[in-house]
């Protein structure tokens, strides 16, 4: 049987072992050969033993049914067992157990045809009551467990909006395992009889207990603290859940404890109806979608439309003879819900007072912010709103040079003086990594030495990058606050919205880190550690400070903003985005300017369908985000394993590992790969806790240079045109496959099939190739895998746009608007006049943004000096899309007179008469 190390998660292991059990039992029923039958029986026995460790944490099929199946096997009732295992596996696969009771014996079973949940229409599925499971933690015997479950079942009423089943486990450790295994759990009832240790002791469960406890020694707890401590620990791994504590302790004892996710305490009572109502109320609070519900109700109202938008209520379509196909394609509801009105139960996005305001508050709770704002025109606009709200003209902003272009344009709008930060290069793959913390600290200390620290306003970084590199957010923020205690952080988490709903990923999000730091900085332990370090570092050089793990002062201000492309990684219509705020000075300093910036960039006619999708998308992740993100990571890990272990694919492709994309000195855990053919899966928790940078496992970067095709050709001509596989990120010799919460194992299987087919075709092509054709192929491969242009760093701003030569900040806004006047600009050809100018020692200064796709960020910004390295990189680019560059004219640059006029303002004065 496969080793546990062959599986990334226990849920994947469970699904595959139920499949294996069904197949093995079915084969046993047909097998007539005694030796083969014995082998099948041994395998079935192993599968039962393996599943026995996992099934206690799930309500379906339940341990009673599972034990019955095991007895069927032991008594030789193989036909009955085959029927039962088939029923269980089918129900688990289709989710039928969520919608109705599944009979598991032939006598009471319904017609097999009616068991096919795939035949249900979306409307029928929508009408079903949502299903979840409640975890009861209490060390009870079998009779007491049946009594608990029966009392819970008796509380159900036909009018209840949800349906749930109970799972009973005895210990704190079992409860931690259950909430990490079982994505159906939405509520936990912690009773006073729980014990500490689990009876299960094996390799599957050990890492889950360690990760959930986050290194805390739970063995030192007193028994009376098990319940409150469990609520706190679950809050750490699945904060979206509700907990209910049944206790015998006094009110005074409970009042001083951190109860984590506990919604209510019941004092030594068996009021099952009150508990039942609280459980339903808690789930309903997360299920609530105020704006979507208001929009649905609006669509049902009879209205007379005498305002803008002829398409409102679908009138302009239903009355048309020529565009009926549009109405047929979209259906009526989308038009019935289309309006520009803010009445009738709806709300204004610009001044929300009703359901939009409530929807944003629910999103704030879900994502851990203090305030959350919706946006209907993408994260590009969110970025500009935050920058314009926080940054004032003349403020110094430290910016990741490789960030999205919206940030660069935001600097122009805000009038910031920009210090661009260089990421470490990955020359071999023609992509950049991320900005090392030492580079950030070095720039902050240089600005401090120059007496400019008071003007430093913001640090802006991309987390995670397009290629999947994730910062150690807490360390970056704390060490920067140690130098600049009121520094504002803007984390561009456009590609990281899903991270909130994974225990592993959540610890590296801006909002989670802000909340952690706000708590930790107030503790006496932190204050003591800070004071001790200050004594040790008294008179320390900048070099020492750069190389020391700095501690932030207790009075540092936590000021964090995160922008999120909800539509990119969660459920939302295109351009649905959010701004999350966790700024201690927001109310007193930023709120008004934020409101004005929001007004500046937000449409007065926002798309209500996008707002509704943001509302519903938030509901989804609060109730099933843990499950969906877990499956997303599983899909990506399966893809890694399949490609890395396939002998044919290894000939032409390589999955880039953390070791390929993150230098060793930034990987303190020593983890270099998430999957190894010899050792299986790596526990990624350790590297996500320790390392300077980690690799988002949901992004699989595939080196394709071995095929002889560059990344863009492989994307368009092979994957998209020939096989219909869509991707949107390439480099010179790589393509990026991004999984998301909608990715299925079937999609992964199809991709692997396609890659194998491509590899086989290449084998056939090379097998029949002539000597010259083979030489041409080898030359292309060598050019893509060995002869790569070095990636240039940011050169510098021209002196005309710098206040001095001490620190590197530049006035990008002045440069941007200087180019508006045509006489200030000229064009130089890359292979002609531009090369000649650099050879002659002239300073050539870009008059605009130059953005090649890929990599998709500016390699030149207005006011930047063109270096020989940048010119060499531009000449080596083999991409067809370069924004800001005109192939017919060349590179747009400033004239010498334009630059001279800035440095010598008197030349601009009119001549004396």
Automatic annotation (TrEMBL):
Any one GO MF annotation of this record: transaminase activity
Domain of life: Bacteria
Cofactor(s) needed: pyridoxal 5'-phosphate
Any matching Pfam family: OKR_DC_1
Species of origin: Sulfitobacter geojensis
Keywords: Aminotransferase, Transferase
PANTHER family cross-referenced by the UniProt entry: AMINO ACID AMINOTRANSFERASE, BLR3474 PROTEIN
Orn/Lys/Arg decarboxylases family 1 pyridoxal-P attachment site domain span: 289-515, 559-745
Name used for this protein in its record: Aminotransferase class I/II-fold pyridoxal phosphate-dependent enzyme
